Amino acid sequence: MDKSRRNFVRMAGITGGAFSVAAVSKYTLANLPEPVERTDTNTQPPYQPEDANYNPVVTLNGWTLPWRYKDGVKEFHLVAEPVVREMAPGFKAHLWGYNGQSPGPTIEVVEGDRVRIFVTNKLPERTSIHWHGQRLPNGMDGVSGLTQPAIEAGKTFVYEFVARRPGTFMYHPHADEMTQMAMGMMGFWVTHPKVPHPAIHKVDRDFCFLLSSYDIEPGSYTPKIMTMTDFNIWSWNSRVFPGIDSLNVRLNDRVRIRIGNLTMTNHPIHLHGHEFEVTGTDGGPTPPGSRWPEVTTDIAVGQMRQIEFIANEEGDWAFHCHKSHHAMNAMGHNVPTLIGVDHRGVAEKISDLIPDYMVMGERGMGDMTEMEMPLPENTAPMMTGDGPFGSVEMGGMFSVVKVRKDQAPGDYSNPEWFNHPEGTISHEIEMDENPRRESDAGSGSMRLARVSEETIEVKVRKPKSHNGH
Ligand SMILES: [Cu+2]
Predict the structure, then answer these.
(1) How far is the centre of ligand 1, averaged over its atoms, from the C-alpha of 263 (Å)?
(2) pLDDT tens for residues 416-434?
(3) How many Å lie between the centroid of ligand 1 and the Cα of residue 190?
(4) What is the DSSP string of 98-135?
(5) How far is ligand 1, taken at its centre, from the CA of residue 322, in Å?
């Protein structure tokens, strides 16, 4: 196609953003909906069509794909293509995705809707889309070779089915899956109930995101697609902390968060300060009698979970994967544990030879967060993120649920850090400088002892080897 004839215009106003559509294209001529693209990574406000009688979802660092009505059918156009995703400030990845981004836009419909989805393949290889969790005719299931021929590069296919079941779903390729999912091809799908459903609550806020992982060497841009286990980028919607937006809610809101796992391992997702219930899976809403309170729920590979809670505690509540290695950014895993190893002298000597040399991990890894050692270009710091009290020392699958009294209903904008009521912040206390205070003999009270530096040295100093070096 002659690229110079493609004239992109900006559609401002719908969600205040940077949609762009081709003004005249072969799609118009073929009577297909113009593909809508976004290239930025900001969480878009809910997409609220005029006739929507549901509370739309908000996709973390993402957006919902607009559709057009044609003969009572909701028509969408997905374009599979190479994209550039800024995964965190200062760190971009060359991924594959849909309509300008990875993950692709969220598709949001209502139970009973007939949907028609055009899929144009602008990848260098063939693809297909599987509609994970949907009830549909077998030939619409998107498994290339099994239920349809693959969509060859440059071709457009159409899928059409009725969204029969309300719930939480996703879409992804079912052609060269290992490569295409390792490259970021995936998207969310939400089907709202048509009429009130006994197991589906009305909620005030409804968030969604996908878990994905990448293996991108520090200083490079493209994921290594053959990696099976040793991923180094653990992301929510292809973003890593501090690049993941916070989930901003109003005090006493009922909040739903829908999460799907398209990585190669499980993720125990943990919320601070509240208990939640798992109210649904990709198999549908869970029966209310089957629910119990949790603060962590494990999401296995290929599973989806929707959690719900009443946000009735004000504050900035951490929300993260509980696997600590998934809450940090690109790092080597072959680093020996150096806690307690005495480097005094060694570092000085090496510094004479290598000016930027820095001993890693002598007092734990927390110092890494403020380290001055230069990172390769295009690398997200391993543990980072400034909070109101210093570095958060996190990365990867970490964000914050911000619960505020004065967050207006429907306002998803990011408030300032929490203003703690006086006397409610953990703080340092005055310590007696005596190394050891005599406890009241026999009183059974706890010994408040300050262990001397010497004791620490004995406990942690690496023992000498047998032959006495
Ligand atoms: Cu995890």
Answers:
(1) 9
(2) 999 999 999 999 998 876 6
(3) 23
(4) ETTBSS-PBEEEETT-EEEEEEEE-SSS-B--EEET--
(5) 6
